[in-house]
């Protein structure tokens, strides 16, 4: 069987790695890796391949950045000829980025079977580009690999047949479990004992100047209590450039490699983020997480984990920060099937398919 994987953006890489590893153990499965080039800087892409042990892509579509329409359309046009030439039996797409939905659309028109890894997540907020990507990808996918019972229910409500759904667990946590021992060896002597680790890149938080300025002001307030360590995403860096030295008191870093970032999360007093994956990683690590969003497509991190949604409410952020500093934060549990074996369960299902 020929399986072709599509990756494009940073959060795809830690999800594809365990699936590729597990499929490599199966007999008779040939794998091809296509990188769309949605993320292209070495520190957003190549370093992740290296650390996660992902083979170099067989094809790079080199689409680069652009508006949503342009980026999605470029991926579709360039991928179509690759799929026509390689005729895979199955294409696997990951997460909720533009590369995910673009590839799923091309496959469905070419009648190539497509599997969606991390299916069924919903924020129910259609102003988020990722929510549109998730909804559309799940509607046209043939196999839906879900992390939780909640995701299965979401798909059920949208009329997806149960026979297409495989509950496999959280594949991103497979990578975390495998590389945590490596991360623990990272030297963090240059950092204070206690710090708040921050990441921000959602368009709704960083694209509007006033909103970004407001959030940076909140971080400056946090910084009075606890040093803020902030690896800055390129999208955010560009927007912050427009604000001059507004954040110059914060410890700003460039985007970090997977292992170094994991080390920083593991040692943090708390994490402040608007990322999806980091809400899950902190829940697994048992580190308090304050999420600068009104909603989450990963509600289990709130109901079972260490995550609290604070939105853009500076008062709530301050209150929760005080609780954490005083050691009075809610402890969480690790959700079911976050056990390091989700990739193997996907490989099992794929190996059982008829070609
Ligand atoms: C994308 C995903 C988002 C994911 C995030 C993780 C979509 C719609 N969004 O958002 O779900 O959480 O990746 O990082 O797919 N840039 C660089 N170098 C790069 C890549 C991007 O400088 O290697 C800059 C460019 O200025 C670009 C901007 O970052 O315009 C945004 O990149 P893009 O891929 O469009 O979206 P992200 O914000 O990274």
Descriptive keywords:
355 residues, alpha/beta, Rossmann fold, 2 domains, 7-stranded parallel beta sheet, binds uridine-diphosphate-N-acetylglucosamine
What would CATH call the architecture of the largest domain?
3-Layer(aba) Sandwich
Biggest β-sheet: strands ordered side by side in the sheet:
3-2-1-4-5-6-7
Shape: globular
Task: Look at the helices and sheets and give the structural class.
Answer: alpha/beta
Alpha plus pi helix count: 15
SSE string: EHEHEHEHEHEHEHEHHEHEHEHEHEHH
Main sheet specs? 7 strands, parallel
**C-alpha end-to-end distance:** 6 Å
Mean pLDDT: 96
Number of strands: 13
Pick out the low-confidence regions: none
CATH homologous superfamily identity of the largest domain: Glycogen Phosphorylase B
- Number of domains as seen in the coordinates: 2
Which CATH C-level class of the largest domain is it?
Alpha Beta
User: Compute the gyration radius: what is it?
Assistant: 20 Å
- Which distinct ligands sit in these coordinates? uridine-diphosphate-N-acetylglucosamine
How much helix is in the residues? 40-55%
CATH topology group of the largest domain = Rossmann fold
Strand content: 15-25%
Describe the 3D structure.
With 355 residues, this protein is of the alpha/beta class. The protein has 2 domains: 2-169 and 338-352, Glycogen Phosphorylase B (Rossmann fold); 182-325, 3-Layer(aba) Sandwich (Rossmann fold). The chain contains 15 helices and 13 strands. The protein has helices spanning 10-24, 46-52, 68-86, 98-109, 129-140, 149-157, 171-184, 203-206, 209-225, 234-241, 258-267, 277-285, 300-303, 314-325, 342-351, and strands at residues 2-7, 30-35, 59-60, 90-94, 113-117, 143-146, 165-167, 195-199, 227-231, 251-253, 270-273, 289-291, 307-309. The longest helix has 19 residues, at 68-86. The site of uridine-diphosphate-N-acetylglucosamine has 19 residues, from helix 1, helix 5 and helix 10.
């Amino acid at each position: 069987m020929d399986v072709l994987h599509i990756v494009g953006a940073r959060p795809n890489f830690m999800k594809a790695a365990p699936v590729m590893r597990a499929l490599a153990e199966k007999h008779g499965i040939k794998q091809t890796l296509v990188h769309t080039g949605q993320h292209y800087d070495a520190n957003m892409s190549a370093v992740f391949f290296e650390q996660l042990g992902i083979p170099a892509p067989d094809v790079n579509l080199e689409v680069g950045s652009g508006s949503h329409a342009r980026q999605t359309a470029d991926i579709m046009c360039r991928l179509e000829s690759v799929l026509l030439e390689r005729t895979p039996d199955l294409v696997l797409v990951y997460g909720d980025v533009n590369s995910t939905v673009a590839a799923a659309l091309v496959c469905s028109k070419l009648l190539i079977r497509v599997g969606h890894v991390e299916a069924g997540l919903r924020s129910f907020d259609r102003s988020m580009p990722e929510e549109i990507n998730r909804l559309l990808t799940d509607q046209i996918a043939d196999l839906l690999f879900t992390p939780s019972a909640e995701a299965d229910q979401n798909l059920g409500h949208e009329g997806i047949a149960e026979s297409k759904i495989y509950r496999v667990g959280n594949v991103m946590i497979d990578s975390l479990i495998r590389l945590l021992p490596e991360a623990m060896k990272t030297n963090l002597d240059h950092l204070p004992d206690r710090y708040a680790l921050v990441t921000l890149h959602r368009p709704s938080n960083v694209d509007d100047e006033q909103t970004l300025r407001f959030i940076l002001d909140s971080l400056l307030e946090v910084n009075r209590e606890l040093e803020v360590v902030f690896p800055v995403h390129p999208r955010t860096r560009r927007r912050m450039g427009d604000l001059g030295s507004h954040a110059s008191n914060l410890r700003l870093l460039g985007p970090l490699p997977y292992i170094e970032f994991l080390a920083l999360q593991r040692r943090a007093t708390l994490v402040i983020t608007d990322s999806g994956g980091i809400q899950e990683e902190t829940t697994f690590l048992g580190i308090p997480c304050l999420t600068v969003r009104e909603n989450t497509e990963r509600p289990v991190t709130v109901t079972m984990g260490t995550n609290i949604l604070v939105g853009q409410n500076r008062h709530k952020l301050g209150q929760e920060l005080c609780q954490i500093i005083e050691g009075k934060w809610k402890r969480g549990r690790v959700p079911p099937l976050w056990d390091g074996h989700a990739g193997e369960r996907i490989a099992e299902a794929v190996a059982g398919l008829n070609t």
